[in-house]
Amino acid sequence: MTTAPKLSSPTVTTVVLDVRGLTPPEPMQRVLEMLARLPAGATLVVHLHREPLFLYPMIAADGWSHSSRQLAPDHWEIGIWRREDGDET
C-alpha cells in the first residue's frame, strides 16, 4: 500500500488543477497533459465534479499513484504522484 506524500512538507511541490465543470473528455485530457509536465517529485492535486474511475488504471500503467477523497457530492479531490519502485498504487 502506498502512502500519499505529506502536502505540508516544504520539499513537496504541489500543483493544483481544478477541472470541475468541464465536459468529458476534457478533464481527463487536462490531467494527463499536466502529468506529462509535472516536475519530478511534485504532486498533482486535481479537483473534479465526480470520481475519475477511468483515469486510475491509465495513470497506474504509467507509474503514478493516487489518493482520492470526496469533499462534497459533486467535488472530488485526487492527489497524484510518481510511484516509487515497489509501490503498488
What does this structure look like?
The chain is an alpha+beta fold and 89 residues long. Helices cover 21% and strands 31% of the residues. A four-stranded mixed β-sheet has the order 1-2-4-3, with helices on one face. The protein starts with 13 loop residues before the first strand and ends in a 7-residue tail after the last strand.
Architecture, according to CATH?
Answer: 2-Layer Sandwich
Assigned CATH class: Alpha Beta
Radius of gyration: 12 Å
* Mean pLDDT level: 88
CATH superfamily: TusA-like domain
CATH fold descriptor? Translation Initiation Factor IF3
Number of helices: 2
Structure class: alpha+beta
Query: Main sheet, how many strands, which sense, barrel?
Result: 4 strands, mixed
First-to-last CA distance: 7 Å
